[in-house]
Amino acid sequence: MKHRYGSIILIAGSLGAGLLQAQAPTAGLTAVEGIKVGHHTLTERPTGCTVVLVEGGATAGVDVRGAAPGTRETDLLNPVNLVQQVQAIVLSGGSAFGLDAASGAVRYLDEKGIGYKTGSGVVPIVPAAILFDLGVGDGKIRPTAECGYRAAQAATAGAIAEGSVGAGAGATVGKTAGGKRAMKGGIGTASITLPSGLTVAALIAVNAVGDIVDPATGHVVAGVRTPDGTGLADARKLLRSGATERPNPAENTTIGVVATNATLTKTQATKVAQMAHDGYARAIVPAHTMGDGDVIFALATGRHAGEADVTLIGALAAEAVADAILRAVREATGVPNFPAVRDLARP
User: Fold this and answer.
1) DSSP label at residue 240
2) Is 109 domain-assigned?
3) Burial, 17: exposed, middle or buried (Cβ in 10 Å; 0-12, 13-18, 19+)?
4) Based on the structure, what is the number of domains in the chain?
5) pTM of the predicted model, to two decimals?
6) Domain annotation covers residue 2
7) Running DSSP on this structure, what letter comes out for residue 44?
8) How far is residue 22's CA from residue 8's CA, in Å, rounded to a whole number?
9) Residue 49 in this model has a pLDDT that exceeds 90
């Protein structure tokens, strides 16, 4: 099995052990054939949006776990409802204002004649989710429909930019002691390919209340800083001591997409989205809080032959999600008041 971590592939016989080998940057979510990803970043704030295009269509599911979600078209993905496939997913900053970005992706697809076929033409199906980043820079600068259009235009099947770009441009993490001790979040991607050719991948924009923890070591990678701002306080210790502050409601959220080249039904894709949330719980402490609107979409392109093992795909999706979360913060670039991982003094 291959775990793809941007510039490194972990070749392993199981999920827990392996050998690290240097390799050129890999595609992450675009390792799944049929998927393109594009970002548009408003660097003057910063904020932005990310469009995941599946112009050939993909079966989709969704699972919403956070208590403060901002979403579009998620009811359509309920397995009992009519439409079976989507043509894009949009992830955006800008809180509820950022949902406008999805309209730009819809316009882009409509111009190409791609969407759900009706007697009056096509209707592009573009679910979306947003995160709250209005506290970084000038909150009046928000992703618009034009941003979504440009992100769709920029989408490619190549390597995906990570860190402080697109939906991760204004993301922050580590707010259990208040926003003044938080750090920079971002967007990250990872994929896993089995010898059979089955691929499962994730793209995650990380804007969590909680700390980011490496599941392999248990060490905090990014999160709430010590009072002097130079180290990591560890939210787990703060939680156990009762020294946390209640986060501002609805001002956070981790959102993302998992994808596979397997063939899944809407019910199966929904189950994969549910299992993928385990990656949040492994890499974010605490996860799914009252101040987070955590969402995961699942896509299945059906390019891989053979019967789908939903348990395996869901388990690999959780692994890829955790990997992508770590990539998001490690690749982030600091902004005023929110240092990145690379900015902190290391022991």
Assistant:
1) H
2) yes
3) exposed
4) 1
5) 0.91
6) no
7) T
8) 5
9) yes
